[in-house]
Amino acid sequence: MPFTGASxxxxxxxxxxxxxxxxFWVQGLDLAVLHRMTSEPGPHDLLMVGHPxxxxxLELVHDRRHPEEPRPTExxxxxxxxxxxxxxxxxxxxxxxGGRRVSSPNxxxxxxxxxxxxxxxxRLVLSTRGWTNS
Length: 134
What we know:
The protein is built from 3 helices and 8 strands; from the N terminus they run βαββββαβαββ. By secondary structure, it is of the alpha/beta class. The chain folds into 2 domains: about 10-65, Roll (2,3-Dihydroxybiphenyl 1,2-Dioxygenase, domain 1), CATH 3.10.180.10; about 75-125, Roll (2,3-Dihydroxybiphenyl 1,2-Dioxygenase, domain 1), CATH 3.10.180.10. Strands 1-4-3-2 form a 4-stranded mixed sheet, covered by helices on one side. A hairpin with a 5-residue loop joins strand 3 and strand 4. Helix 1 (about 20-30) packs antiparallel against helix 2. The longest helix has 11 residues, at about 20-30. The protein starts with 8 loop residues before the first strand and ends in a 7-residue tail after the last strand. About 20% of the residues are buried. This is VOC family protein. Pfam families: YycE-like_C (PF22659), YycE-like_N (PF22658).
């Protein structure tokens, strides 16, 4: 089957602490745990989060024997287009669950959204804009 706009996308990232990451993404953003794997006695633990009906999910991996240190930059963004105001309650919940509200070096995101760093330093932008292909 060829790649199409309906093809599922997995965004994979290392995590220092899957329990803290789960707090942020599940309790904070309200994503669902789609899959969890603890590979005892093996080294790799895995957490997949997302919405069950979305064509994407976030995979977070932790290798207990050789932990990979996350190396996000200020431009490593996961942008969610809300097409409306960012609820203050959502921002507060993300911060209460391990996130940190930050300013973006790109003024576009400061004007059109709220940027929150997850516990591993990756940035989530909640955009007030809607998505268009133009």
